[in-house]
Specification:
The protein contains 15 helices and no strands. By secondary structure, it is mostly helical.
């Protein structure tokens, strides 16, 4: 799945690090690495997705560029992660196309917007610039089924691609999907994700955007992560309010659906802008080119989705309702279309890597206990 030259470079890098151990204890990558003597493809994939790209190892490594040995752990592992996203996605032709990152995401979003616009102009063109208020105003422009059916198709497709990729990833790195699952490991890995506590570079934080560790990147990620959760909660509340309670949107500004969605959207926009600023200031030396493009594509798409959603909220009782609704649904569609092939899947594979890491820690702890008991 991964180019043999990239595997060879990853093996060279990890073998050198395992011999040196100057970065011992900096992050879970080095702790997990030290449990191994050799590095098969499965080990390299696991370690790459365990990496949170804090870059502390790059800054403190005595052999990082411009040293002739040229040890660059963040760049090599990022390239392996990108190969993971592409290799475990299907179909391969689409996955390869999304290597271009921002242009591919822009194309998918534009195509989704133009498709929705064409449908509206064809069937309800007179309503595109009309003003609608009160319950069901959105559905005066685009019928409920016109929103739900395409959303379900795109969502099912994306989730299917992601799930199959996860199954392949887990089988590659740790055997059968349900083998060796441990409740304690699940809880600890989940807490790792919820707190983003492995993004601290061993304590002081990431070396973003310079050599001085700080927690700005971790805080920015938390804003994006919890903002996304809030908007997901908002969507769930909207479904319950409409389909079970029978109250049609749009809802008042102080309604729980609107409040959670608004706060979540603001969190994501602020977090994404902060991450873009950090990435631009951090430079390109320790970075994989394709991964950098995927990063920017995902962040820009999240900004677009949340910005046009907030604009729709503010201008929903004006003639801009129809145009903004088309743009918002199209940008959401573009985001969902690109999710299985872009940076979104890093959450899935990273959680799997964190879970495996916790399983290894627990097995090691139990073996130590047995040895001590003997």
């Amino acid at each position: 799945m991964i180019d043999v030259r990239l595997l060879a470079e990853a093996d060279r890098t990890l073998t050198a690090c395992n011999a040196c151990r100057y970065c011992e204890g900096v992050c879970p990558v080095f702790t997990s690495m030290e449990r191994r003597r050799t590095f098969a493809e499965a080990d390299i994939i696991h370690l790459a997705n365990l990496c949170h790209d804090c870059r502390v190892c790059y800054e403190v490594c005595p052999f990082s560029p411009p040293h002739e040995i040229g040890i660059n752990v963040p760049k090599v592992l990022a390239e392996v992660r990108e190969a993971t996203y592409r290799g475990y996605s299907a179909p391969q032709l689409v996955a390869t196309a999304f290597e271009h990152g921002t242009p591919a995401a822009a194309f998918a979003t534009t195509l989704a917007i133009l498709t929705i616009l064409a449908a509206v102009l064809l069937f309800r063109g007179d309503r595109l610039i009309a003003t609608f208020t009160g319950p069901g105003a959105f559905y005066e422009v685009i019928p409920w089924l016109g929103m739900v059916i395409p959303a379900m198709v795109v969502s099912i497709y994306g989730l299917a691609v992601i799930f199959l990729g996860l199954v392949r990833f887990w089988r590659m790195t740790d055997g059968p999907l349900l083998a060796k699952l441990d409740l304690r490991a699940l809880v600890e890995a989940s807490l790792d994700v919820l707190g983003l506590r492995e993004m601290d570079g061993g304590g002081p934080g990431c070396t973003y955007p310079d050599e001085r560790p700080n927690h700005r990147r971790r805080i920015s990620h938390q804003l994006v992560f919890y903002g996304f959760i809030l908007t997901f909660i908002s969507t769930g509340l909207a479904a319950v309010t409409q389909d079970i309670l029978g109250v049609l949107p749009p809802y008042p500004f102080l309604h729980p659906v609107v409040l959670t969605g608004t706060v979540g959207g603001i969190f994501q926009i602020v977090g994404c802008l902060a991450l873009i600023r950090l990435k631009l200031a951090a430079g390109t030396v320790p970075v994989a080119r394709v991964m950098r493009s995927l990063d920017f594509a995902f962040l820009l798409m999240l900004i677009l989705v949340n910005a046009d959603g907030l604009a729709l909220l503010v201008l929903r009782e004006t003639p801009w309702l129809g145009a903004l609704l088309v743009i918002h649904l199209g940008s959401v569609g573009g985001l969902y279309l690109t999710m299985p092939y872009g940076k979104f899947v890093h959450f899935i594979y990273r959680y799997a890597a964190l879970l495996r890491n916790r399983q290894e820690e627990i097995r090691e702890e139990r073996l130590d206990q047995l040895s001590a008991g003997a």
